[in-house]
């Protein structure tokens, strides 16, 4: 990897049909629930500045995961979301509390516009922190597939952390020792987007930056939806078969002292005809670890931009739900 990617924060790493018939959520005629409707957006209207952009592709190492295995992950996710509602409710976030489990996002702010999506959120690492009562038993290989995939993704992330450090002439563990320690978390977020008859008014995921170090995203193979803000314009991320998207999270931006590795604002639009599915694996540093700009990236010409912070991902989540950008709150 080298610095020519610096202005384009999503990287295409290298391998990725869904015909899901389940549809619990639908917008019909005037029954549109108002809490989903985007009334104003400082980030630009839903249909603003749509352009098709090119995503930088890193093919030097490839992700090394077979496309048949990637299909298996999508298939496991699809099978789970296709289960009857009552069965999915067994894993409901509302029953067990906290952020993990199945459901729509909790309302945490009066300003919150709801996302047109269902999520299944599971902590995969550290392994002894798994809440296995929330892990689907159907399909019966779900847990095994997720476990295996998470190991591959962790390996990939560690390669990336090192390569990114080296590309800045830093010691190779400069990012990983903070972002990827033993207590670092890997969160699996399965996103399921039902069809929506008003894609002009409703987002699948509203504008946000990921509160992670890195996010590894397995996209739907057929249905587009992800958009990234590049130089003030929303760019559609086209589907590239067999590829995995790597999204730089805000904690990487903090560590790189802002101007090197930027965490992109991105959003997911809804689709009136087709269901969509994505699987994001999130690298979340240990909440007890203080994250801040790497000392060697601070000097007279590049003063420190961010304060040090612990448990940034929870700050990021609250700001996301209020429609705010959490990184702004850390600026010196
Ligand atoms: O569905 C996608 O393509 C992206 C989802 C996303 O941005 C997220 O889960 O943070
Ligand atoms: Fe995201």
UniProtKB/TrEMBL annotation:
Name of the top EC class for this enzyme: oxidoreductase
Keyword hit for Heme: no
EC number: 1.14.11.-
The Fe2OG dioxygenase domain, residue ranges: 180-285
Domain of life: Eukaryota
Keyword annotations of the record: Iron, Metal-binding, Oxidoreductase, Vitamin C
Pfam families membership: 2OG-FeII_Oxy, DIOX_N
Recorded GO MF terms: L-ascorbic acid binding; metal ion binding; oxidoreductase activity
Family designation: Belongs to the iron/ascorbate-dependent oxidoreductase family.
Record protein name field: Putative oxidoreductase
């Amino acid at each position: 990897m080298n610095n020519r990617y610096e202005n384009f924060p999503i990287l295409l790493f290298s391998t990725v049909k869904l015909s899901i018939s389940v549809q619990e959520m639908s917008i019909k005629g005037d029954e549109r629930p108002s809490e989903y409707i985007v009334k104003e957006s400082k980030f630009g209207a839903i249909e603003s500045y749509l352009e098709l952009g090119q995503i930088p592709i890193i093919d030097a190492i490839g992700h090394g995961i077979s496309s048949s295995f990637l299909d298996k992950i999508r298939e496991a996710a699809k099978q789970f979301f296709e289960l009857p509602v009552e069965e999915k409710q067994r894993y409901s976030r509302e029953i067990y509390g906290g952020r993990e489990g199945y459901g729509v996002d909790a309302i945490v702010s009066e300003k919150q516009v709801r996302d047109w999506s269902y999520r299944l959120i599971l902590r995969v690492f550290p392994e002894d922190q798994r809440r296995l009562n929330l892990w689907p038993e159907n399909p019966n290989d779900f847990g095994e597939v997720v476990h295996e995939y998470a190991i591959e993704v962790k390996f990939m992330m560690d390669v990336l952390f090192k390569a990114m450090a080296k590309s800045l002439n830093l010691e190779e563990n400069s990012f990983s020792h903070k972002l990827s320690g033993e207590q670092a978390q890997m969160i699996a977020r399965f996103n399921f987007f039902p069809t929506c008859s008003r894609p002009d008014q409703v987002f699948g995921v509203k504008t946000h930056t990921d509160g992670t170090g890195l996010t590894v995203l397995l996209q739907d193979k057929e249905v587009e939806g992800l958009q990234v803000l590049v130089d003030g314009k929303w760019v559609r991320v086209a589907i590239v078969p067999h590829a995995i998207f790597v999204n730089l999270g805000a904690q990487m931006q903090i560590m790189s002292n802002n101007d090197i590795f930027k965490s992109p604002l991105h959003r997911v639009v809804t689709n009136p005809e087709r269901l969509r599915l994505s699987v994001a694996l999130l690298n979340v540093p240990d909440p007890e670890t203080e994250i801040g700009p790497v000392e060697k990236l601070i000097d007279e010409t590049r003063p420190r931009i961010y304060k040090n912070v612990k448990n940034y991902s929870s700050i990021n989540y609250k700001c996301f739900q209020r429609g705010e950008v959490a990184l702004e709150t850390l600026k010196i």
